[in-house]
Structures are given as C-alpha cells and as structure tokens.
Amino acid sequence: MHPRALRLGASVAAALVVAAGVLTTSPASAAVGDDDPSVGAASPNGLVVNEVESNGDDTDWVELRNTSSAAIDLSGYAFLDDDSSHEAYVLPAGSTIAAGGYFVIDQVSATAPGFDFGLGGADTARVYDPAGELVLRYSWTAHAAVTYGRCPDGTGALVDTTASTKGAANDCSSPVRINEVESDGGTPGDWVELTNVGTTTVDLGGYVFRDSDDTHAYTIPTGTTVAPGGFTVLDEQDFGFGLGKADSARVFDPRGDVVDSYTWTAHAATTYGRNPDGTGAFAETSAPTKGTANRFAGVVTAEAWPGGPDERVLDDEDTFTGDLSGIDWTASGSGSTSGSAAGQLWAVQNGDGLLYHLVSDGEGGWAPSNAAGTELHYADGSGTPDAEGVTVTSDDPGAVYVSTERNNDVSSTSRPAVLRFATSDGSQSTLDATDEWNLAADFPGLGANAGLEGVTWVPDSWLTTHGFADEHTGAAYTPATYAGHGDGLFFVGVEGTASVYAYALMSDGAFQRVATIATPFSVVADVQFDPTLDALWVVCDDACSGRTALYEVADGAFAATAVYEAPSNADRTLANEGFAISGVCTGGSRATFYADDNDTDGFSLRTGTYPCDSSTPGDGGTPGDGGTPGDGGTPGDGGTPGDGGTTPTPGGGSTPAPGGAAPGGSTPGTGTSPSGAPVAPSESSLTEANRGTLTAPATARPGETITIGVGTRYAGQQVHVWMFSTPTLLGTATVAADGTVTATIPTDAPAGEHRIVVTAEDGTVLGWTTITIDPVTGALAFTGAEGLGVGAVAAFLLLAAGAGVLVLRRRRGIPASE
Fold this sequence. Notes:
Blueprint: H1 3-20, E1 47-53, E2 61-66, E3 72-73, E4 78-80, E5 89-90, E6 96-97, E7 102-106, E8 123-128, E9 134-140, E10 148-151, E11 157-160, E12 176-182, E13 191-196, E14 202-203, E15 208-210, E16 217-219, E17 225-226, E18 231-235, H2 236-239, E19 247-252, E20 258-264, E21 272-275, E22 281-284, E23 302-303, E24 312-313, E25 324-330, E26 344-349, E27 354-360, E28 366-368, E29 374-377, E30 385-391, E31 399-407, E32 414-422, E33 430-432, E34 435-438, E35 452-459, H3 460-465, E36 469-470, E37 475-476, E38 488-494, E39 499-505, E40 511-518, E41 526-530, E42 535-539, E43 548-554, E44 557-564, E45 576-581, E46 589-596, E47 605-611, E48 699-700, E49 705-709, E50 718-724, E51 728-734, E52 740-744, E53 752-760, E54 765-773, H4 790-808
Parallel strand pairs: 23-44, 29-33, 48-54
Antiparallel strand pairs: 1-2, 1-10, 2-7, 3-6, 4-5, 4-8, 8-9, 10-11, 12-13, 12-21, 13-18, 14-17, 15-16, 15-19, 19-20, 21-22, 24-47, 25-26, 26-27, 27-28, 27-29, 30-31, 31-32, 32-34, 35-38, 36-37, 38-39, 39-40, 41-42, 42-43, 43-44, 45-46, 46-47, 49-52, 50-51, 50-53, 53-54
Helix pairs in contact: 1-4
C-alpha cells in the first residue's frame, strides 16, 4: 500500500476509534512538525498567510502580513511544508514584521538563506512559533496559475491572483486585458479584442469600453464572458463609434476603475497586439488575428497538440511513491535483455534518487522490471542524487546517464551534475556513479532546487550532418575538437534559467559548453532528442500548462519551429516533469510518455499519441543513435541519421492504417453500410477462435466507462465497439498506442451477462469477451446507532475506516483528468 494511503487510513481509523470512546491519549507538548488541520491561515495576533508562490518563480516562497497595529517579532519562528521529515527553516534573530507590513519566507538561493525544500502542487505551508506551537496553516491541492493571495489584501480569502506581488500588496485587479486593436477599418469595421489572464471565466456584463473621448462609452451586455486564456471581441457595430489614427482603447470595470488601456499615435499596418498574449507589450502584429492568439514576425505561436486529445494512466496505483521526474524511451535490445516491440523506458525519481527500468505488459500498462527501484549514489557510495532527468546513448549501451540538481543529503547546496551509472537493465539494488560532470562552475548563483531537470544525448553524426555550430569556437561543430567526449553531445535543461545547454563531457570529468538555447518557457522540465522529426523536444510542466516546443537546427543553431498546447483533454495542472516519445510508429501514431512528479491520485505515468508516417515499418531505432529510424536494423549501426522515411509535418499526421486480418484468419467483411454507418457483426461471426483475444473488466455498471484491451498490433487503427445480446454500438474509437480503447456502458443496459465485441473498420471481428452488467442499486439505509453497544460502534467505525483505505486504492485505467 502507498505510504500516503496507509497514513491516511491509519489516521482515519484512529480518529474513529477515539470517537467511539475506546482509545485515550494524554496531551503532548507542542513541537515543530506536529500537525493540526484545524489551524487556519490567520492567527489571533494578526499574523496571516497573505500570498504563496509554489511554482513558476525563481524560488518558492510564502508571504506573511501583519494586520495588527503593532510590530511582531518573528525571531525563532519555524517554517515547514506538509512533510515533517524535512528540516524546518528557523527564522533568524531580528526577524520582525512591522504593523501592516509584509515578511517573505523564501527558498534558499546562492545569495540568501531560506528553506531548502520545494513547495509542491499539492502541499501545505505551516508556521510554528518559538514554542513549537502551530500558529498558521494553509493548504492547496494544485499550483496556482500565478500565486495564491488574499483578496482583498490581508483580509480576504486566498484566491488565484492576477500577478505575483512578492513582499507587496496583492494584485486583486480584474484579469481582463486589452489584447489586440484594429483601428483602421477591419472586418467588419474597427474592433478591440479582450483576453483573460486569470484562471476563472469573467462576466464582462457592466464593464465599459471607451476610446480617448469620455463621451464615447459602451456598456458591455450582461452574459458576455471571457474564459481563461480566451478571447472576446468588441465590434464597432456594437460599440457605435470608430477608433482614430491617434486614439486610445480603455476598459473600466463596473465600479468605474480602469482595468486596462492602450494608446497609439498612428494606425498599424495590420493591428496592434500584445506579445505574448495578455501579458506582453503591444507591437505591430504580422496579421490580424481577431478572436485568436496574436501572431508576430519571427515568433512561434502556440498551437493545438497534433496528436490524440488524451493522456491516459499507464501504471498501477501506488507503483511509485511520488517524485517521478525524468523518463526516456529506447528500443528493446539496445543494452538490455528485456523489453518488447513497444520498446522500454527508463525513469528516475528525484526525492529518493531511484532509477527504474520499465517494460510494457502487453495489455496497455507499463511496470518496472526492478519494482523497488535501484538506489543511486555518488561515486564514493554516499549521498542521494536528486535525480531529475535520464537518458541512454548508443555509444555507451551499458550505461544510463542521470541529470541532477543537488545531493539531497546536502539539500541547500547546488550540485548541477550529469552522472553515469553502469547498468543495462536496472537489476542492481544500488548503483554508484562511475563518472560525474559537475557543471556548477558554469552556473554561479544557481539555486539548489533550480538545476538540471532534463537530459538527452544527440549523436555527433546527426549534428554535423545538420550543420550545427559550436558557440565556443565560433565555427561549425567539429567533434575532434573535444577529445574523449564520446560520439555525441549531452543537452541539459536547466530549471533556474529556463534554457537548454549542449555540453561535450570528456572522459576525465572535464566539460565544455557548446551551445545555449533560449526557450519561451518559465521552466524547462525536460528535453528529448527525436531523430524521427530531426528535432529537439523542450518541455515545460504545469508552470506552462503542459506546453511543449520543437526545435530544429537552422543556420547552425536550434530554433523553435512549433510550440504546442497540452493535449486538449489532458489535466494541465499535472506536474509532468518528464517527457519521452517512442520511436515506434504504428498505425499513424507514436506513443508519448509523461512522468508526473506529484503522483496525482497515486499515478505517476501517463501516455498520449503524436502523429507519424507509418508507411515504413520498423522499430524506429534507438533515439539519438544516429541510425535510420524505421530501418529495423541494429541500433547504432551508423546509417543515415534521422531520415525516418517521410518526416511528418508537425501538426499534420497520416491516415490510420486499415484493419488487418482477424485472429484466426477470418475473412474481412463489409463493415459499413452504403451510408457509411458501421454494420453490426452477426452472431455467427463470434466464434471460439476469436473469443478471449480482448481484455475487459469482468463486471461493470450502467453508465460506467470501461477500458478494453485490443492489442498493440492494432494501435492507431479505428475500430467499432459493440455490446451483445442485441447488437448495440458503444462507439467508434482509435486504438491507443498501448492497444486499448474505452467505451461507456449504456445507462439502460439490462443486468446480466453480455458480450463486448470489437470490429475493424472493414467489419472483421478482432475479438470478443464476456462482461456482466451489475444492476444499479440504492445506498444501504442507516437509521442510526441506537441500540448498538460501544464495541459494536467501534467495530463498525473501524470497518468503515478500512473500507475508506480500500477506496483510496484505484486501479489502472482511471482517466488522467479524474
């Protein structure tokens, strides 16, 4: 059982026993680390938690405010997050907060003291007085889009603020912003586009729009809204006046306060727009984009994810204990004796420095072949590397390379390093690094929790073929310049600088930076080389709502060619710090993999899809090996790098391949009617030969969504899902990369045994299995505890507590959005 679930279950059970009167305890002295959920975010002396930054800034921090009329001495106060095993940060002598003033408890950096742990997406800020008494407590379940702050400042509820205001009054203003202005006769006429930089939809009813003339006023009708990150346009035909060559656009809230304004002195050749949307300065756009994201010359605009809309859970609940941070895909057979046609994954966990080797179970899930993980240490056998990223290389197939931020045993000191560990399958219980490249000298002042997040390896053959330039020499990259560096460069993503750097790592521990790559993100969570696309993936986590970017070499340097939003159905608050993409193209898609550092709902590993050209069969080669993707040859064979056949255009994709022959070699039938509607298979087509080739739950209830395993050989193909006895089409779906589809049982499905059948587009039965539909029953009546003895009440409550623990344990297949 997951320790978190165990602790929660034990707490519930203990609390219920106490309630039953069968357990007594004597009061204990207050101590730092003790918890009490009844303590709030305001104390009687006027001290309050006023603002919290847990993500997306240079450091995490908690701002206190003194709402009283007298100064408060904070000397000796202690700060913790929700983990009592962390060393509390004790405020130094002389720490005071003036009446009405602010005091920031900050994370440690190279230039200032502070707490040496991070604040997570689901965490708690706890403040203790010098006697060890818990005096302030504030919890949250997900990172704020900006910060959590009191609105009104000092006294209101903690809500997502409009802007971060560290050490100052909170920004509780309207998140509505003017985003684009057309003043020179657009379509149809002048217009002003508004956007919302907040996290909740804003009703614009009662807001007033004016130009530079106060008598020109348009009150926006009730019911007009603007969604977070969305756009709402005010047209000249509605507001009734034109915008001049030298004019202003001003927006007022219903109280009459100015929300935003923009003034110009001449018409734009196109339009004036913010770069980036909502938050940046105004500039002339490359073209009008009424109602959509602004576009500027030389700027890559975020676009929809071109693959599937979902991120689906892959691991069983509680497989990992949280902090899964880095992940890398490689083809089976390269330096490992295990794996499958789906390839294999390497993953690292940062809090406890564990390395995992994962393989597909062939039924839609992935699990570590080393269930307990391999403990990583530094070369002398000491320490706990804060393992954040992982990669393998073709020039060193018996090794795994891990990027780190620090030694967790000395967590206040930055140690941004790449470590080499000699393993082919992670079967060892512990591993000491054979080599370390500590890059600290290249990053003076880097915070201990702001170091190397991601790492990937790019072969020299690919870099030279694509004309990569060396910023160190100022000339074309020449591998011979760096003797003993192997056959490629390591690219690392640094959290604190939000940039990617290419390094030659020499066999004697020396290193040389070869390139610096700026990114549009506030955080770089991972970096992955993709030889199929001849590109580098740069990944941001929930700090950027799950965006990713593709970089290609142009004029010698890596430059962004596409920025993608997260898949449309994905939970954008997931702390997806790890990203990998399969080299296997099946049925028009490749699997993507995401490692969730927060272990949300007990799950750390998820998958999605990215389109590809499946005309060339094969395993895709080992990422970064310089071999020909799709050639099916030996990884690292030195073939033409990255050609992959026809390179798919980002955002494009190909038509899924048609269904193949059914198991048992049945003859394909006609799966659609002349009108194009699916035709149900006949009873006679459900034979013993094609029975049992599907996997599905043994039971389900009406209205429940179930996961059906069809098989990875059908990944990317469109299939029809049916339920018998009377044939009922449950839906048409594309088989995911792991070989599964989902379907929902009709709400009026009768109780009893049924058959789930999956057919290909041409009508071929791919397989069937039985399922029992349970009747929907009401909740059991409970009329009270009268007549029950104390022992019976205690037994009932303990049983309920046990049931509560069991409810915590959900199985694989729960959608990531839940």
